[in-house]
Queue: 2 jobs
Job 1
Amino acid sequence: MPVAVEAAGTEGHRHWPTSTTVETWIDLIKVSLPFVSFRHSFVFAIDGAVLTSDSTLRFRGRSEINDSLEAGGFVAREVRDAPDRPGCELVFVSSPSDLAR
């Protein structure tokens, strides 16, 4: 399954119940498939404090996920498109491999 990396539309302002505005954005740090690293930044208007959170996602193909499930004692009973992202993301419905079908 091809992986599309999009960086558009990552900036915004959020208003919290405390009447504080928080500016947020996401920076794409590195793409080295199957890994994608990014940084989510938050700036709090009340005092200018900055908080950052770095993350790395690993994108795996269907066969690698099936192999991981089997190694863990599971079997994929069904593989579906994610309802909100058809064609872009898979959902594996799995159960322990010792259960009868």
Job 2
Amino acid sequence: MIQPHDLVANLSNNATTFAFPMEQLIKVAAMNDRESVFRALDAGADGYLLKRTKPADLRISLLEVINGGGPMSSQITRHVIESFRC
């Protein structure tokens, strides 16, 4: 079983991909620094939400990822946009 603190590291591991080929992961975290965000996305996270996300918004985000979307909190989206401007 994958430990929660090892999940981001294990996302980029091919064995994890083969063990859970249809799984989608939304990282929910307190940290919104660029390094943490891009590390999770680079490792294969399908979305990134902050822990303060309201339950109703979390439900919408889960439905969004199931339907092929990439849900992100607005602060996370800002990091992604700014990364293209650098």
